[in-house]
Amino acid sequence: MATRRPIVAANWKMAGSRQLGAELLEKFALLSDSSAEVVICPPAVYLDSLQQQLSEHSDTVAQHRITLGGQNLSHQEFGAYTGEIAGSMLNEFGCRYVIIGHSERRSMYGESSDIVADKFVMAQKMGLTPILCVGESLAAREANRTFEVLNGELNAVLDKVGIMAFDNAVIAYEPIWAIGTGKSATPEQAQEVHAFIRQRLMQLSPYIGEKIRILYGGSVKPSNAADLFTRPDVDGGLVGGASLNASDFVELCRIASESE
Ligand code: PGA
């Protein structure tokens, strides 16, 4: 089996501060080498100061493979799109990743699967690795439609870009009912869905299916992370609430490194 380096990605959402970045880097400096990749996705206005802070802590950054990511990008390249952020701008401020299709963007800002697919294309065009979020609502799960929903969200992107584009992508499985609710999926539920996603991609390309990293997101915290991250098809986490506490987030990165 291919070894997949785990990723722990912090999704600060519309929270955090400059100070949080400084606290995080202080805590990372105390942690011995970790093998997990760490991605911090702050609100875009903090990218500049975080990039600067990272360059001042280059030893820590190298040791822990810390990189930056955007929380969203425009599906347009540049131009008159008030309030939007271009992929090239994320790139300019040191981002290597960008979260695409988070359920909060899909449900509150009307992002269709088609737009999500366009954003996936734009991210890659701008040299960023998309972290594509997929996940079912509670109603869909209770109606036994989980796999149908996931297939729909995956197909929208696959139909547009083809399987080989997933060579440079990460998937995050985020059951909507587990996001910010404190109610995580059980490790068994997470593993079942991750295996399903991997199989789906494996059918199209065994190479991609084996290689792609699939993160779990939804109320990940230090008390449940080890059980989730050690499942065979779970390659780390996309973390919201717990990423706003520097000690908890660094602990999650330590747990992910040990799960490899
Ligand atoms: P949560 O958020 O960890 O607060 O549940 C995860 C996410 O939405 O990415």
Bound molecules: 2-phosphoglycolic acid
CATH superfamily: Aldolase class I
Number of strands: 8
Protein structure class: alpha/beta
* Largest beta-sheet characterization: 8 strands, parallel, barrel
Q: Into how many domains do the coordinates divide?
A: 1
From the coordinates shown, what is the CATH architecture?
Answer: Alpha-Beta Barrel
CATH topology: TIM Barrel
The backbone outline, from C-alpha atoms, is globular
* Overall residue-averaged pLDDT value: 95
As a whole number of angstroms, the C-alpha radius of gyration is 17 Å
Question: How would you characterize the overall build of this protein?
Answer:
It is a single chain. Strand 1, helix 1 and strand 2 form a beta-alpha-beta unit. This protein is α/β, with parallel strands linked by helices and 260 residues long. The chain has a single domain, classed as Alpha-Beta Barrel (TIM Barrel), CATH 3.20.20.70. An 8-stranded parallel beta barrel has the order 1-2-3-4-5-6-7-8, surrounded by 7 helices. The protein is globular and about 45 Å long. It is built from 12 helices and 8 strands. The longest helix has 18 residues. The structure holds 2-phosphoglycolic acid (PGA). 2-phosphoglycolic acid (PGA) binds next to strand 8.
